[in-house]
């Protein structure tokens, strides 16, 4: 059986990681998760504050490498994925071994922007959460987990995150097979996706 490739897109802090985590908890070793964020270009040479760098433009990622890795996984071969630090904007020297699995979830704000990536996906899910909720979540998460200050989150949001969302992320919503409202813990939507995955595993 070839792997089922599921893409989970949506704005920052919409609940993509939360959905991927719920699917991983339900299906354990049957699920492998790859984040587009692992494939950010290295920006550690920038000595300026984070909010000066545009991390929300499609050119910020090495998407060709992600596409190559997804093809490898789909063909049953392991890959060594990059490791990325949000704290230092750095692509680390080490890599992490990722084994193929029946379900591969790829997650990221812009994954439906690239035709080559979209063509590989069997199911495209867009997690749709209101911008004010996402901003509140992002402020808490970035301060707690990504070593940011309120001022830096605010400046980055206004300078790049919001305009790039409107220009590049939001339009990809209509590329999705399923749009999940109130993303993160939408139980009905999550149950439907779990059912779809079970059907694939039972084939
Ligand atoms: N339904 C929800 N209710 C409250 N907080 C949530 C919900 N879904 C996600 N979060 C929180 O919001 C933050 C961003 O969620 P996450 O799933 O990491 O989003 P994304 O991967 O889209 O950036 C995390 O701190 C997460 O715990
Ligand atoms: O070094 C970095 C890399 C990325 N970001 C921000 O992360 C989000 C995407 O991650 P989500 O988990 O989907 O929120 C994106 O909006 C970038 O702005 C960063 O701040 N620093």
Element layout with pairings:
Elements: E1 4-10, H1 16-27, E2 31-35, H2 63-74, E3 79-85, E4 90-98, E5 103-107, H3 115-118, E6 123-128, H4 131-145, H5 150-169, E7 178-181, H6 187-202
The chain binds adenosine-5'-diphosphate and ligand LLZGTKA7.
List keywords for this structure.
binds the ligand O=c1ccn([C@@H]2O[C@H](COP(=O)(O)O)[C@@H](O)[C@H]2O)c(=O)[nH]1; alpha/beta; binds adenosine-5'-diphosphate; PRK/URK; 203 residues; Rossmann fold
Question: What portion of the residues fall into strands of 2 or more residues?
Answer: 15-25%
Low-confidence stretches: none
Q: Write the CATH architecture name.
A: 3-Layer(aba) Sandwich
Please give the CATH class: Alpha Beta
The helix-and-strand class reads alpha/beta
Give the cofactors and ligands. Answer: adenosine-5'-diphosphate, the ligand O=c1ccn([C@@H]2O[C@H](COP(=O)(O)O)[C@@H](O)[C@H]2O)c(=O)[nH]1
Number of helical segments? 6
Q: What integer value in Å does the Rg equal? A: 16 Å
Tell me roughly what share of residues is in helical segments.
25-40%
Strand order of the largest sheet: 2-5-1-6-7
**Overall outline:** globular
CATH topology description: Rossmann fold
Count of DSSP strands = 7
Report on the biggest sheet: 5 strands, parallel
Q: How many structural domains?
A: 1
Tell me, rounded to a whole number, the average pLDDT. 94
Helix-strand pattern, N to C?
Answer: EHEHEEEHEHHEH
For the termini, the CA-CA separation is 8 Å
CATH homologous superfamily identity? P-loop containing nucleotide triphosphate hydrolases
């Amino acid at each position: 059986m070839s792997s089922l490739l599921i893409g989970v897109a949506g704005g920052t802090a919409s609940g993509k990681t939360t959905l991927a985590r719920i699917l991983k908890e339900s299906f354990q070793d049957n699920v492998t998760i790859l984040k587009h964020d692992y494939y950010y270009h290295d920006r550690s040479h920038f000595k300026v504050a984070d909010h000066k760098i545009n991390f929300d433009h499609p050119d910020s990622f090495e998407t060709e490498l992600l596409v190559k890795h997804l093809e490898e996984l789909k063909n049953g071969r392991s890959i060594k994925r990059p490791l990325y630090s949000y704290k230092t904007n750095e692509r680390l020297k080490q890599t992490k071994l990722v084994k193929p699995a029946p379900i591969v979830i790829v997650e990221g704000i812009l994954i439906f922007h690239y035709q080559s990536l979209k063509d590989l996906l069997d199911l495209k899910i867009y997690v749709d959460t209101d911008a004010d909720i996402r901003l509140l979540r992002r402020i808490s998460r970035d301060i707690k987990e990504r070593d940011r200050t309120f001022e830096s989150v605010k400046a980055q949001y206004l300078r790049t995150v919001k305009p790039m969302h409107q220009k590049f992320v939001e339009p990809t919503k209509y590329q999705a097979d399923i749009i999940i409202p109130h993303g993160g813990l939408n139980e009905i939507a999550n149950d439907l996706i779990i059912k779809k995955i079970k059907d694939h595993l039972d084939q």
